[in-house]
Every structure is written in structure tokens, then in C-alpha cells.
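Homework help thread (please don't just give me the answer)

Our assignment gives two proteins as sequence + C-alpha cell strings and asks us to describe the second one. The first is just a warm-up. Here they are:
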Amino acid sequence: MFHDLSALLGPYGVARSTDLVPRVDRHTVGAWVAAGRLLRPHPGIVALPDRFDEWPTRALAAVLATDGALSHSSALTVWRLAPQQDPVHISVVASRRALRTRGVTVHRVQQLTTDQLGSLPVTLLPRTLTDTWGLAHGRGGTSRLVETIRHAVIEVLRDRRVFPRQLRTELVRRPGLPGRRELDSLIGLVEAGCQSELEIWGVEKVLRGPGMPRFAQQFRVDLGGRVAYLDAALPELRVAVELDGAAFHGSASARERDTRRDVALAALGWVVLRFSYRRLIHDPDGCRRDILRVCAARRALLARR
């Protein structure tokens, strides 16, 4: 009898052997494995050979083999915050035996609450972020994963997909988390108004440097019909500091938009200081000197009025 294996194994090309038994006897399944028509990547799991190169297929195979949920960087991938990468990380409750199999790292946890994204169970987003942060900063972590998880934390906090209190709750539960202090600091910076790595660099290396005044971040200004949010501002002096990332301010349309906004701010008495990515990274001391010089001039001007 002919069987369409693609239809039999479903859209991901992977299934438990026991799930096939009602339609195909186990001896037939074994024969397909022996003939190379199916792979057996983990105990009790079969997959189509030409589909197992696909990351979602390997991820679902790991889930089916462990009865767990995707976690750490693998869950971050399903949450669309990280690229696909191996090994596949799975979390299971501590009472379960950890599967030892190629390409899968199993984490035994005391509590496991999950969400379902398509066919894939994943850890909740606050837990996923915290787990991945610990993975990146722990033994075996890489600078690339550190960069990925930092970007993910900034993005989800900025877009309010996760709130600072939710991540801090995870930190309370994880006193031994690698990089715990650094994560708490990053949460505070985003909470204060930083919306990108460039703004974080600007705040830490320029705006909080020696002798600098206290800036308000993401300061709201009504431009008459529209609103501008300034990266950093000294409202009492009407001095604004804008930190220009190359990716967002490099196009002609973006420069035109910034120019129009700066003109509208100038009409309200604001002085706008713009610093490029290159200047911020390579000359933070010079940026601070320029800001302090303008602030001194503004104070002198206001004192004469």
C-alpha cells in the first residue's frame, strides 16, 4: 500500500512513531527508517530526511521527544527576536528525566508555564528573555548571543511587549542568574527612556560624564499639531541632544524629517545638538565639551534677559 509520507507526518515533516501506529503498523515504520525514507533523530521520533535540515522541524522534533517546551534562545527565535540556531533548547519540569540526544539541550526547571505559538510550545516571553540572558552571560556564552539578547530586551521593553516589573520579577526568582546586575542596569536604562544601544552608549558615555547636568530622556515637546520626543533635554535651558544612529538617520528622507523638526523646535526657542554615531563612539569627550559649552552660553543668555 502506498503512503504519502509528507501527508502522514504533517506540515513539519516530523511525528512521534506512536502517533503513526493507528494508520501504519510499527514494522512498516521501521522498514521506512531502514530504507532511509525516514530518519529517527531522537528515540520515538521519525522525520523526513529532506525536512530535518529545517530548524522548525528540528525544534518540533525536540519538543515531541521531551514533552517539553522550547526555551532560552530557541524560544527567543519563535518569539521572532533571534535568528535560528542550534542546539535546540528545551525546558522540562524537574521531575522528568532529561533527554540526552544530539542537537538538543534540556533544562530541568521547577516551574514551567508555557505559551503556544503555532505548533510550538514556548516559555513565556519574560522567562525566555531572562533564560537567554543567563545563557549568553554564562559559561559557553558568546558575544553574538549577548548582542542578540540585549537587542531583544531593549526592543520588547520599548514596544511594551514586556514591562520592567515582569523582568524584575524574574530577577527576584533568579538570584544566581549570570549577568544579573547587567540586566537590571539595562532594564533601568530603557525604563529611563533609552530606546537603542546608541542611546544607551550616549547616556552612559556622554550624558552622564563628568560635570554633565541631569538630562530628561524622551522629553515630550508639543510642536503645534504634532509631538516630538527628544532623546535628551534640558528643559530649563531649552537645549536638546539628539543621538543619530546611522541606520535611522542616513537616508535623505530621514534627514529632511529631522531638519523640519529641528526648525520647528528652533521656532520655540530650542537649540538642538545632533551627534552622529561615529562622533559618539569615537569622540565622547568632545561631545561632552560641545554640550557643556552650549549650556554655558544658554545660561549666560538667559541671565541677561
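The one we have to describe:
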Amino acid sequence: MNDLNLQLDRPSVLTANEGELARESWKIFQIMAEFVEGFEKLASIPPSVSIFGSARTREDHPNYILAADIAKRLSNSGFSVVSGGGPGIMEAVNKGAYAGKSLSVGLNIALPHEQASNAYQDLGLNFRHFFARKVMFVKFATAYVVLPGGFGTLDELAEILTLVQTGKSRRIPIILVGSPFWSGLIQWFRQTMVPEGTIAPEDLDLFQLVDKPEEVVEAIFAYYDDRCFEPSVAEREKLLHL
């Protein structure tokens, strides 16, 4: 009798699973739409610089002011400037870029708290999925600039370092801003990760640390002094399979 009851119950379980599978299948189209819109709109904005930092930084904080300064300098130098589109450092970045000569771009995402789109975007895209949004930050970036931030900022930093380290993305300038904030992490890389063999000594050359806004612009132009901002044919192929 127990076996019979189990067999009778199974169709309802399968029906529930099928319904869930149908929802997951339709989700694929939503994900595809985010990628298609991102590719179409961001492909026309090069060269661009992606900038990251804390959503919790207040408008009167030195890091907010620093982020706005960096973004405006980059914008006036001809770079479209891309942020996560939210408050804090992201708002400062978009505000600085908006005051400059080039596009201010926000890759917005809906979150239960913290995230609300800022008002300083010439071009704003909306995402539901972090992974689709993260691809957009990397795929069209000429450089990465990372200011002090939390887990999300560390996630973006680790993402680009991993992609470049493993050869899945082209080499671009990765610039950390703020010695007091980043020095402890870099020291841990050097004194713990390298001796443990979890990263190679040369992996520390994937990024550089600066403190002044003009140093960010100088570092990017120095990197591209003998190469084009546009990806090479080989780099395009690499980014195609990102």
C-alpha cells in the first residue's frame, strides 16, 4: 500500500517540477535580453573606463569627492565613464562624468536595499542579474578603476583580476585608488598568498596603486602609449568568448 501511495503521489511532484522548469526556461529569455541590450548599447561608447566603489559613501566624504574628480578628468580626456549607477561612489562617478565632455553610463541593478539609480546618467541600463551586469563592466572596458568599497567592490576587483590572470580577458590597466584602504590587502597578497603559492609573484603586476586623480589618467594613457585603445583582433576573439 505504501508503494502504491508513493506511485500515486509522483505525478503531482513531477507536475510541480515541470512548472518550475518552465519558469527557469523563460528566465533564459530575460537573461538573453539583458545581454543583447547591453552589447548593443555599450559597443558604441569606446573607449570607456569602469569605476567601482562603495554605495555607502556619503556626499561629503573625501572618497566621494575624489571619485567625482577622477571621473570628470577621464570624461574630459575622452573616456566614457561607467559605474554601477547607484548611490555613494557610483553617484560621484556619474556626477563627475556628467559634468565632463563624454558619456556618463550607469549599469543599474535592483536590490532589496542600498541601490537606487542616480540622476547623473546619459545612458542607463537596468539589470536583474549580477552576472550579466558584470560582463558589461569587463567586455567594453579600456581600464578598471577601483576606489574603497565593500563586498561588491571586492567582487568586481577579484573578477577582473581572475579574468586577466587566466587569459579569459585582455590585459587592461587595473588601478586601485587609496593607499590607506588597499595597502593591507596588497600586503596580504604579497606576504600570504604568494608564499602559499595560491598566486604567482608576477600576478601582483596586474594592478597598480595610486592616490591622486591625475595619476589615474596618467596611468591609463601611459599603458596605451604604444598600443591602441581598441582591442586587437586576437583580443576581440578573446572577449567574444568572455
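TA reply:
I won't write it for you, but here's a hint about the kind of observation we're looking for: Strands lie at 48-52, 80-83, 104-109, 123-127, 141-146, 174-177, 208-210.
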